[in-house]
Design brief:
It is built from four helices and no strands. It is elongated.
Length: about 80
């Protein structure tokens, strides 16, 4: 029984997700919260878009279109209940 207790003590939702998706343990599990990981990816994506344009107005237009697309996707998937 001690062996299984140790496994369940180390288990978290990211481990379960990786096992179900890939059938193996994930070695790239981060201890950051979901919000922190989303914010980190958001900053990286915006930086990458901005680095692809020399003109600030063009990069802002592309970022704006990305936000518009994301908002439409959220509405389509039913995530935006406030209308």
């Amino acid at each position: 029984m001690n062996y299984t207790s140790e496994i369940f003590n180390r288990l978290n939702i990211q481990h379960i997700r990786e096992f179900l998706l890939h059938g193996a343990e994930c070695f790239d599990i981060r201890d950051k919260s979901y919000e922190d990981r989303i914010e980190e990816l958001h900053k990286e994506a915006i930086k990458r878009v901005e680095s692809g344009f020399s003109d600030r107005k063009k990069s802002e237009a592309v970022v704006s279109e990305i936000y518009n697309y994301a908002a439409l996707a959220v509405q389509f998937l039913g995530g935006d209940k406030a209308k």
